[in-house]
Amino acid sequence: MFNGKSKSDVLGEVPAGTSTSLIGAGTSMKGDITSNGDLRIDGTLVGNIHCTAKVVIGANGVVQGDINGQLADIMGKVTGTIKVKDLLQLKGGSILNGNIQAAKLQIEPAANFNGECHMSASGNGATAAGKPVQEARREFKHEIAPA
Question: Is there a contact between 42 and 21 (Cβ–Cβ < 8 Å)?
Answer without folding.
Answer: no
